[in-house]
């Protein structure tokens, strides 16, 4: 049986479209962050990673101050049913805002041990401290956007914490630790 030119063209188009859809479906179905966030559980664990921004909640809490600094603790809690992951070092790319409007601030300087990895997952919240130099009039903020890091590099996505915080010069951010 002889195939016409139109039939061959339609066949190639269908094959190309099918392949493109398969690639697109695979890209959508692969959870973001799995490759970069070091899993703390076996590779076959089907649960989504706790290190995905959508799978955690972060809150800011005022903490006792020290000589010349105000302190705030940011606590991250993982959603139930997620798989644990490893985090290390201080968060970076801090952006403070008040009801979504960015507040001017200096680049935060990391302090403390930047190499120690901690496990983060359901029932295993983690925290980091933000220190702000005392001043007469810090800018008020209620949101903090930040990036997290794992032993293997950056965790994909931006994270958001909510709660009252004062912003001024001399910001230091500590490493992620167990709560």
Tell me what you see in this structure.
The structure is a single chain. The chain is mostly beta strands and 179 residues long. It has one helix at residues 5-29; strands at residues 56-66, 69-78, 85-88, 92-98, 101-102, 109-110, 117-120, 126-133, 139-147, 149-150, 153-154, 159-167, 172-173, 177-178. The strands form 3 sheets. Strands 1, 2, 4, 5, 6, 8, 9, 12, 13 and 14 form a 10-stranded mixed sheet that branches. Strand 1 and strand 2 (69-78) form a beta hairpin. The radius of gyration is 22 Å and the shape is globular. It starts with a helix and ends with a strand.
Q: Structural class of the secondary structure composition?
A: mainly beta
Q: What percent of the residues sit in helical stretches (DSSP H or I)? A: 10-25%
* Low-confidence spans: 6-41
Task: State the separation between the terminal residues, measured CA to CA.
Answer: 73 Å
Silhouette: globular
Assess the beta-strand content as a share of residues: 35-45%
What does the radius of gyration come to?
Answer: 22 Å
- Note the total helix count: 1
Mean pLDDT: 82
Order of helices and strands: HEEEEEEEEEEEEEE
Give the strand tally: 14
**Which sheet architecture does the biggest sheet show?**
10 strands, mixed
């Amino acid at each position: 049986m002889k195939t016409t030119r139109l039939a061959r063209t339609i066949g190639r188009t269908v094959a190309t479209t099918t392949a493109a859809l398969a690639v697109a479906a695979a890209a959508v179905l692969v959870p973001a962050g799995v490759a970069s966030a070091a899993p703390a559980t076996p590779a076959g664990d089907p649960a989504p990673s706790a290190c995905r921004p959508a799978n955690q909640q972060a809150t800011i809490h005022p903490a006792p101050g020290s000589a010349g600094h105000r302190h705030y603790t940011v606590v991250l809690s993982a959603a139930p049913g997620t798989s644990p992951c490893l985090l290390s070092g201080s968060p970076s790319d801090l952006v403070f805002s008040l009801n979504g409007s960015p507040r001017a601030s200096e680049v935060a300087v990391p302090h403390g041990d930047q190499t120690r990895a901690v496990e983060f997952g359901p029932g295993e919240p983690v925290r980091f401290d933000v220190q702000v130099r005392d001043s007469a009039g810090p800018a008020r903020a209620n949101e903090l956007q930040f990036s997290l890091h794992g032993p293997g590099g950056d965790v994909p996505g931006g994270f958001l914490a909510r709660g009252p915080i004062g912003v001024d010069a001399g910001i230091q951010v500590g490493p992620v630790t167990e709560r």
